[in-house]
């Protein structure tokens, strides 16, 4: 898998506004927020996309899904709700080829997406 900006953030080589870190994942504010709260939750393991998830990643993905609502609560999103988005590949709008979960909230989000 090619090196990405997220690998550099994990290693602390470029700065990010980190809101959560543990041994398996990292969460930080998106540099170009699309909502009042826009955080990216990423596995530290370099998985390219949803399409590259394998059976051995099941525990890691479970951990991320348990962690996302905790981060949402920490950021004050639990009461009004929020959206979790994962873009995959070109048609899905994925720009950074390191699996990431967009956590968006702080305003009423529209549906369907563009
Ligand atoms: P994607 O389009 O791949 O689903 O989302 C990639 C996200 O990463 C975008 O929302 C973009 O703003 C964010 N991003 C790209 N480069 C950086 C960076 O250097 N730092 C941070 N914090 N976010 C970034």
Tell me about this structure.
This protein is of the alpha+beta class and 114 residues long. The chain has one domain (5-105): HIT family, subunit A, CATH 3.30.428. The chain has 3 helices and 5 strands; from the N terminus they run αβββαβαβ. A 5-stranded antiparallel beta sheet has the order 1-2-3-5-4, with helices on one face. Strand 2 (25-29) and strand 3 form a beta hairpin. It is globular and about 35 Å long. The N and C termini lie far apart (29 Å). The mean pLDDT is 97. Bound molecules: guanosine-5'-monophosphate.
* Strand coverage percent: 15-25%
Helix proportion range: 10-25%
Unreliable residue runs: none
Secondary-structure-based class equals alpha+beta
Overall mean confidence score, pLDDT: 97
Q: Could you describe the largest sheet, including whether it forms a barrel? A: 5 strands, antiparallel
Report the radius of gyration as a whole number of Å. 14 Å
Q: Regarding CATH, which class?
A: Alpha Beta
Bound molecules: guanosine-5'-monophosphate
Lateral strand order in the biggest sheet:
1-2-3-5-4
Can you tell me the number of structural domains? Answer: 1
Specify the overall morphology: globular
- C-alpha end-to-end distance: 29 Å
Count of runs of 4 or more consecutive helical residues: 3
What is the string of helix and strand elements? Answer: HEEEHEHE
How many β strands by DSSP?
5
- By CATH, the topology is HIT family, subunit A
CATH superfamily: HIT-like
CATH arch. level architecture: 2-Layer Sandwich
């Amino acid at each position: 898998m090619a090196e990405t900006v997220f690998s550099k953030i994990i290693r602390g080589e470029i700065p990010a506004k980190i809101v959560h870190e543990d041994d398996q994942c990292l969460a930080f504010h998106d540099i170009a927020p699309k909502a009042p709260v826009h955080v990216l939750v990423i596995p530290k393991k370099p998985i390219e996309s949803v399409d590259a998830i394998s059976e051995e990643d099941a525990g890691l993905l479970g951990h991320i899904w348990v962690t996302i609502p905790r981060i949402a609560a920490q950021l004050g999103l639990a009461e009004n709700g929020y959206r979790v988005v994962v873009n995959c590949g070109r048609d899905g709008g994925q720009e950074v080829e390191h699996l990431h979960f967009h956590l968006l909230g702080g305003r009423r989000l529209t549906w369907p997406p563009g």
